[in-house]
UniProtKB/TrEMBL annotation:
<keyword id="KW-0560">Oxidoreductase</keyword>
<keyword id="KW-0408">Iron</keyword>
<comment type="similarity">
    <text>Belongs to the cytochrome P450 family.</text>
</comment>
<dbReference type="InterPro" id="IPR002397">
    <property type="entry name" value="Cyt_P450_B"/>
</dbReference>
<keyword id="KW-0349">Heme</keyword>
<dbReference type="InterPro" id="IPR017972">
    <property type="entry name" value="Cyt_P450_CS"/>
</dbReference>
<dbReference type="GO" id="GO:0016491">
    <property type="term" value="F:oxidoreductase activity"/>
</dbReference>
<keyword id="KW-0503">Monooxygenase</keyword>
<dbReference type="InterPro" id="IPR036396">
    <property type="entry name" value="Cyt_P450_sf"/>
</dbReference>
<keyword id="KW-0479">Metal-binding</keyword>
<dbReference type="InterPro" id="IPR001128">
    <property type="entry name" value="Cyt_P450"/>
</dbReference>
<dbReference type="Pfam" id="PF00067">
    <property type="entry name" value="p450"/>
</dbReference>
<protein>
    <submittedName>
        <fullName>Cytochrome P450</fullName>
        <ecNumber>1.14.-.-</ecNumber>
    </submittedName>
</protein>
């Protein structure tokens, strides 16, 4: 049985080459620390089949951190309530429905002028500080963090503490007791904000949640996921995306000419969620010609599926002129990323504004430091000058 390549971590912009090799084999059993019978799914059609059928493949509450060891019962009780990724329908539907209205296309059009302002302010600050600058701490992290903080009603001034907590929580090498401690800290922080919101509910998302019929721990869990998912992923797409766009001279012009098309191809090619949250087989079933038993863990590799030649021709090439097809960078099925319209808007506005403000922006770092130990792939630092 092959060992799963380093929890599917990567070096550089491409997925581990072993992953693409596994795609030729179809669905197969692999050795991972997470369990006994673990199936690795790497083809786009099989990934869509798993993620698209919650009656056969449920969300595993024990595996809420992709790539990390399974959670204990104690951890589970602490981190599960309110987290839509830890439930199947109908519980999942109930949680998701409460906040879905905040992420529609209409809501995004309303929010767009504010995102422009947030981006402009960060660019002003970068310009004032002068080159060289770290684009991760100066732009990629604060832009989506500011937006989700405002949407939720979380003080942006607390960002250093919560970003540090999430980075530690997402470290796939962390011992499980430590992860539990961090999860509890994060919940305690959001519980305090929820308590304040209860005494004076605002017109932000926390206000909506405390006015709903959710239990207290559910409000905390849902807000925690929104704060985490709302900036970690987009921030890493922004920094990796800028590094990619600056790597070749014609990429900047392509982005400025057709930002929507380029953002989709970047999402496909970079795929910052390295695995996709694992699923558990709920019934005895067949997948890619293999007999899967109830309780088997099924890990869908989003980076491998997004480089499947069945999705686009010449999938390892970055082709900024093509339609990236229906990639799975945001997942698929009932858990398809709730924040996808927000992330797409933030990327389009941020890339456009950055490359317009600094037409001669260049990467200074010679060796990029990739976040290979984190459950969201990206860069720790991106030094640029202009
Ligand atoms: C779910 C990726 C931005 C909120 C997901 C999933 C993926 C993903 C792959 C599915 C996980 C699964 O099926 O198990 C991304 C990427 C982003 C991004 C690549 C940025 C480029 C955001 C933003 C938010 C957000 C800005 C805003 C709050 C969520 C939530 C879920 C989710 C709440 C759970 C949905 C559910 O269980 O129904 N995301 N995401 N994400 N994402 Fe995102």
């Amino acid at each position: 049985m092959p060992t799963l390549p380093l929890h599917m971590r990567r070096a550089g912009f491409d997925p581990a080459p072993e992953l693409s090799a596994q795609r030729d084999e179809g669905v197969r059993l692999v050795d991972v620390p997470q369990g006994d019978r673990v199936w690795l799914v790497t083809r786009i059609a099989d990934v869509r089949e798993v993620l698209g059928d919650p009656r056969r493949f449920g969300n595993s509450p024990h595996h809420v951190v992709p790539g990390a060891p399974a959670l204990s019962e104690e951890e589970l009780a602490a981190v599960r309530p309110g987290n839509p990724l830890a439930f199947d329908p109908p519980e999942h539907t109930r949680l998701r429905r409460l906040v879905a209205g905040e992420f529609t296309g209409r809501r995004m059009r309303w929010l767009e002028p504010r995102v422009h302002e947030v981006v402009r302010d960060r660019l002003d600050a970068l310009e004032r500080g002068g080159p060289p600058a770290d684009l991760v701490t100066g732009f990629a992290l604060p832009v989506p963090a500011l937006v989700i903080c405002e949407m939720l009603g979380v003080p942006f001034a607390d960002r250093d503490a919560f970003q540090d907590r999430y980075a530690r929580f997402f470290d796939v090498t962390l011992a499980s007791e430590e992860r539990l401690g961090i999860a509890l800290e994060s919940r305690a922080y959001l519980a305090e904000l929820a308590r304040r919101a209860r005494s004076a509910p605002g017109d932000d998302l926390l206000g909506t949640l405390v006015r709903s019929d959710l239990g207290e721990d559910e409000v905390v869990g849902l807000a925690d996921l929104l704060l985490l998912a709302g900036h970690e992923t987009t921030a890493n797409m922004l920094s990796l995306g800028v590094a990619t766009l600056l790597a070749e001279p014609d990429r900047r012009a392509r982005l400025l000419a057709a930002p929507e098309v380029v953002v989709e191809e970047l999402l496909r090619w970079l795929t910052v969620v390295p695995t996709g949250v694992p699923r558990i087989a709920l019934v005895e079933t067949e997948l890619g010609g293999r007999a899967v038993l109830p309780g088997d863990l099924v890990i869908c590799s989003l980076p491998a599926a997004n480089r499947d030649p069945e999705l686009v021709p010449d999938p390892d090439a970055l082709d900024l002129g093509r339609q990236a097809g229906s990639h799975v960078a945001f997942g698929h099925g009932v858990h398809h990323c709730l924040g996808a319209p927000l992330a797409r808007m933030e990327m389009r506005i941020a890339f456009q504004a950055l490359l317009t403000r600094f037409p001669d922006l260049r990467v200074v770092s010679t060796d990029l430091v990739f976040r290979s130990e984190q459950a969201v792939y990206g860069l720790d630092e991106l030094l640029v000058e202009w």
